[in-house]
Model the fold of this input.
Amino acid sequence: MKRLLFALALATLPSAAYASGSKLDSGDTAWMLVATALVMLMTPAGLALFYGGMARSKNILNTIAMSFLAYCVVSLVWVGWGYTLAFGPDFHGIIGKLTKLFLSGVSPSSLSGTIPEYLFVAFQGTFAAITVALASGAVIERLKFSTWLVFSVLWATVVYAPVAHWVWGGGFLAHDGALDFAGGTVVHINAGIAGLVMALMLGKRRGYGRSAFFPSSVVLTALGAALLWFGWFGFNAGSALAANGSAAVAMLVTNTAAAAAAISWLLVEWLFLKKPTVLGAASGAVAGLVAITPAAGYVGIGGALAIGLVAGALGWFGVFVLKKKLGYDDSLDAFGVHGINGIWGAIATGIFASKVIGGTPGVLEGNLPLLWTQVKAVLVTVIYSAVMTAAVFAVSSLITGGARVTEEEEIQGLDSAVHGERGFNL
Done:
């Protein structure tokens, strides 16, 4: 009998090792390959079209190029040194060590949990790329393309990688217990604050506030929003890093919050501006996707509905009230949508987190200290991103002989002045 029990125990070892993450799981790997491809689609396709359609027709290609090339540049930075700074061995909770520079020591047999480490590198690289690209929305139509490329390299290195390490790479915010399932602090607050700082330093577009700036194609923006929504399932559900119940919850609450926010934004603008616009619905959906991102693996349907409904109204407020009241020119509302709703989502995670869903209770389940933990993570990210973005932008401007295009180029349009192309030949 003892020998039989021993044999049965041995037979269970592979599955136990499997569960502990010490062996590759083909199901998890297959899902993460798909999730990585979904997130990749978000930057050079989804975000490029979403932003491009909102830009004026003379600047649509330049706007698309800023997202497209940000993806290319950051992809190289990531495999070179970004990954090891974010996910290398922890150095005093601040940064990752350079032991994996240019992926040194990573092999096809290396694992990160139950998936190949190469796949984890690729997945996280798509996050770094879209974060940089998101910030471009605040400064389109007046920023030098050369300055943007230099900024992308420096910002991904100096700002994105450290914040990613603090939250996801074993840094001090992770040790504090801050919850960020897929990027409320790391991606959206980080990018939104960066965009706002750059917009303030660069100044307003010529004619801003005096002339009407019409989007080149709301159709493209709506299509871009749909592609972002589609890719966001990989963004949020993929952040479970496994094909499991957490991924399923993240996918469902992501869809729920986006739908609620689209309706919320539409109703608010219908009430105040008397027109339910397609641009408003598309922007609302993105606002909801932003807000649910940090909470996706921690809240249920009730929390997702509350987060989405508030996000739509907050996004509208950021775009139509706050920006006008304070007078800054955040061209495509990188701060108004991503920054503000990233903050809301991070704080809302502390409120609506459910122990049944993600293992950590929030304020509504009696865990008040989690709210302070979330607020502290928000404040740290805001301050660090603002200060370091200002420094990086100043250096980028110095390297490229100034960050702003000439008056003649701005009037002509950056598509023809910079790229020698036209987005539309009508």
User: Anything to note?
Assistant: The mean pLDDT is 94.
